[in-house]
Amino acid sequence: MRYLTSEQLSANLSLGKSVEQWLAPKEEDTYVVLRWLRIDKEKDLTYTTCYIECFDEGDEQFADIYEFSPIDPDEPEVLNNFASADEAILFVKDAYAASLDKFVNAGLIQDEYRNFIMKKG
């Protein structure tokens, strides 16, 4: 998996390219909660963080986690807005224990999910 350097992360966000990060899943009694986040640059030049939790409904042949059912269908994602990319990054580090060196370009979160499937056996 190719993770973005901190310079690439900043450059991508300033250019309006979304980034994502896989977060550690949560094991519940009868199901697994997949978690990830995204940071987007908005048209008004602010930045939005998006935290997502969904059921683990995939396998090696179906890894499109964007299609998995959200844990809370009434609130499928948690959004927060910030004036700068640095503020958004700091927020996800503090709120979700995101790692500065584990961001990927948008769309590659599915590769992170495939890695998770392979590791769990």
Short overview:
With 121 residues, the protein is α+β, with helices and mostly antiparallel strands. The protein is built from three helices and five strands.
Please outline the helices and strands.
Layout: H1 6-14, E1 19-27, E2 32-41, E3 47-55, E4 77-82, H2 85-96, E5 104-105, H3 109-120
Overall description:
With 121 residues, the chain is an alpha+beta fold. The protein has one domain. The chain contains 3 helices and 5 strands. It has a 5-stranded antiparallel beta sheet with strand order 4-3-2-1-5, with helices on both faces. It is globular, with a radius of gyration of 14 Å.
What does the largest sheet look like?
5 strands, antiparallel
Radius of gyration: 14 Å
Strand content: 25-35%
Number of strands: 5
- Which structural class do the helices and strands define? alpha+beta
Count of discrete domains: 1
Secondary structure tally, helices: 3
Low-confidence stretches: none
Strand order of the largest sheet: 4-3-2-1-5
Binned, the helix content reads: 25-40%
List SSEs in N-to-C order: HEEEEHEH
Distance between the termini: 18 Å
> What is the global morphology?
globular
Mean pLDDT: 94
